[in-house]
Amino acid sequence: MAGSNLGGMMTQRLTDEEVLELARAFYRQNEILSLLERAGLDRSQQPGWSGQSAQEYWRAINRLVESEQLPDGRLRILTEAQRDFRANRTFIRGIEQASAAALAPRGVLLAVDSVARRPEGTLVPVDWRLGLATIVEDAARRCGLAAGAIVHRQRDTDLIGLVADDATAPVLVGAFTAELAGALATYNGERLGAERVRLRLALHVADGTSIPVSSADADAVFDGPAAALTHRLVDTPGLSQLLRAQPTADLVVIVSSSLYETTVRATTGTTGVAGAAGAAGRTGVRGLDPAAFREVAIELPRDLQVSPAMHSAWVTVPRPEVGARAGRPVDSSATDAPRPAADAENRPWDYLISVADKDTDWGAWIAWELEQRGLLVHLQAWDVVPGNNPVIQMDQAIQHAEKTLVVLSENYLRAPEVQAQWTAAWSADATGMKRRLVPVRVAECRPGGMLRGITCIDLVGLDDSAARAAFHRGIDAVITGRGRPDSAPPFPGPRPRS
User: The pTM is what?
Assistant: First the structure.
């Protein structure tokens, strides 16, 4: 983990990735001792070498960093390492993160922008003055914030807000965004197309120098550089792309790297991965699962000076609370009764899961993962209930599904009843340019004919966490049309010796 929050103080430690990268770059004893001396750790404080490997030695150094025997140790060590390896992205990113975490935030800024989606896919602003403030205040109340905790100002289609208490930062990033998504799901229950209101939300740390104690003084912060950056995050292309790529999502969120470090990343374990339940268990706040966030690059205008420099932020699509999907009312005069979730006549399914009866457990696993992304999924085992005609239900789903996801195994290839499902998707996109047919291989099999020529998401032989990561990478590629990595690939040539 990058740090742990103890009594409000952030204790920094090197991440596992940083330890491995340091061991690759500095593996000779004299190089390591020299680097540590430059970082401020006297040789008398350094652990003995005693025949350890470079990785083992750097782990021992990391224990000193975590125990604060070297103040700001993570930042100092990575800064010295980056001087020798100036293009190393692991060192550069670690310096940015450690610098951001060192600025203990005394408040959190949020910017909310309301938009609607035109039929051609473009996003246009929506002047939603009363409803926007009402839903933000209601979401804050539902996640336990005191009345008036968010001091806000609204201008036409957007809202800027401030929470002066930094202790609420994990709540705002986690529970607040989930409640906001739930409130929107209820509000948009029977609204289609341009009638649906969708929100882009940015969260960033407020200036740590002077946080106002009254709403009358908030304008000074709203006119400051931190607020300008928060507004800029709302307009990040990656956030709008995420909203366009997930047409059923009502809310997309971007969190600045500095705020991400002190909230979400602080919940990860030593491997850098934590499930939602584990994160909530450590922080007491739901919605802080690092696996739900994706890093995106940001470009700031030259006239917007930010210290420390910021080159990336983190985006996520919060999952609405279960109560919202069931029609839990919100305190808004504009609220209507929600539309049932499985209503493909008015709103097409994002994915039809085509699965053999013997692989229903795989179908359920995949459907659940897709719904975590805010997607509308048809799975026969879930959506055909007593009284329904399964043949008619499947015919409707085939006609109204944007994509068909095939759960590929020998069971599937031997099941004649599923052939019509994937062939309908193939005939609607025979060239594959729209990626209407998405095979996911879950067991060893040898598809023939047209199925053999379609690239699949391969989960064969993977454990739970690896399969989940591979599946979501594949779905990201399906949405974006390319499998671009989130960070620069390592330099394939020889590295210079220091």
Answer: 0.48
